[in-house]
Each structure stands twice: as structure tokens, then as C-alpha cells.
Design a protein that fits this description.
4 helices, 40% helix
């Protein structure tokens, strides 16, 4: 029998846009990440998108709508730089979630720009386009 009391959710955050097509592109990326992650060692029962500003869903909205079985929430900022959003705005939204949902454990993961493999990923993407 599976213990459902400690399920984890991964919430991937992006900036958000006034353009619905831009947000939809991000939502589709998160859906693909969730699909590819389903067989990985890191087990998340839920992988959802959240937007910092410009459009819903906000981090709080997403977290409030998670299944009751989710006890741990990991927030992953899909941002390149440690600007104001990464340094202040996202931690403030995480704190808001912690206040609103004290029964949940919320962890803010390192933002995407801190990834050691980022330079290689960029170079690979460039070489795919160059001849």
C-alpha cells in the first residue's frame, strides 16, 4: 500500500506575460517536464506551473488547489538571473504560501540560472542551429 500522506508537488514558476500565447508555451513546457519526470527517481505526484505576475495562476492559487495528500511543495524558479524577482518577490510569495498553508512543508529550490549545466545547454542549443 502506498503512503499518500507525504506526496510531493513541484511548482515551476516563470515570470508570466500579458500574452496568453507566451503563458501557454510555458504551461506546455511544464506539462512535458511532468510527463518526462514520471519515470525518474525524483517522485512528484503533481507538477504544476505558476506565474509570478501578469496572469494567473499565482503560486498561492496553485498551492491552495493541490490535493490534500500533498504535504511537501517544492518551488522551482525558472529564471536565469538573481534579479529582484528571484531575490525578493518569489521568496515573498513562498512566505505567503507558508502562512496560508502552515500544514504544508514548502521549499524554495535554486533558480534555473544556478545550474552547472546551463552553459553546456546553451552551447548545445546554438550548435543545433548552426551549420
Amino acid at each position: 500500500m502506498t503512503d499518500t500522506t507525504h506526496e510531493k508537488a513541484l511548482i515551476i514558476m516563470a515570470h508570466g506575460s500579458r500574452r496568453a500565447a507566451a503563458n501557454e508555451e510555458f504551461f506546455n513546457l511544464v506539462k512535458r517536464i511532468g510527463s518526462e519526470m514520471s519515470g525518474s527517481a525524483e517522485k512528484y505526484s503533481v507538477v504544476m506551473p505558476a506565474l509570478l505576475e501578469q496572469a494567473p495562476p499565482t503560486l498561492l492559487q496553485v498551492c491552495q488547489n493541490l490535493p490534500d495528500s500533498v504535504s511537501d511543495i517544492h518551488v522551482y524558479p525558472l529564471f536565469f538571473n538573481q534579479g529582484r524577482h528571484v531575490e525578493k518577490d518569489i521568496p515573498a510569495q513562498v512566505a505567503e504560501v507558508m502562512d496560508a498553508l502552515p500544514e504544508k512543508t514548502v521549499e524554495l529550490l535554486n533558480y534555473f540560472g544556478q545550474s552547472e549545466g546551463l552553459a553546456t545547454l546553451v552551447l548545445d542549443h546554438i550548435s543545433e542551429q548552426s551549420s
